[in-house]
Design brief:
Helix 1 packs parallel to helix 3, helix 3 runs antiparallel to helix 4 and helix 5 crosses helix 6. The protein has about 140 residues and is α/β, with parallel strands linked by helices. A five-stranded parallel β-sheet has the order 3-2-1-4-5, sandwiched between helices. It has a single domain, classed as 3-Layer(aba) Sandwich (Rossmann fold), CATH 3.40.50. It contains seven helices and five strands; from the N terminus they run E-H-H-E-H-H-E-H-H-E-H-E.
């Protein structure tokens, strides 16, 4: 890994928290490695919202609370401004795919704004957009 900042996706955050997730072991191993190396990580406030909703709905309030206090605290949260939201919404409309979320499009735009190429996650939409998925290497 090159030590440039990477974006952490909901799919990685969720896999970290759910031991029954197919990617849990990979996510846990990579997360520990990132922490040991003091690897710079970021996410978006849209990913935070999506992750909280997913964790609360599937694993319960306590899991969402633990994630927010124990895991998210070491990640730089990039707050989405109106311009980024608008560009992401236009991208979402232009791609017009049922399983591609606005949250993903915000992540794509944010990655491009910050000139980042690496995503810690398991969502192939990122590789389709030209980003390297750390979780699926």
């Amino acid at each position: 890994m090159v030590n440039e900042k990477l974006l952490v996706d909901t799919s990685a955050f969720y896999a970290l928290m759910d031991r029954s997730d197919n990617h849990h072991e990979t996510a846990a191993r990579l997360w520990v490695s990132l922490l040991k190396e003091n690897y710079p990580t970021m996410t978006t406030n849209y990913v935070v919202l999506e992750t909280l909703a997913l964790l609360q709905g599937r694993l319960g309030f306590d899991a969402a609370k633990v994630w927010y206090s124990d895991i998210l605290g070491v990640v730089d949260v990039q707050w989405t401004d109106e311009s980024t939201h608008s560009r992401a919404f236009e991208l979402w409309l232009s791609l017009g795919r049922r399983k591609l979320s606005l949250v993903d499009c915000v992540s794509f735009v944010t990655l491009r704004q910050h000139k980042l190429e690496i995503v810690f996650g398991f969502d192939n939409h990122f590789s389709e957009q030209g980003f390297q998925l750390l979780g699926l290497d």
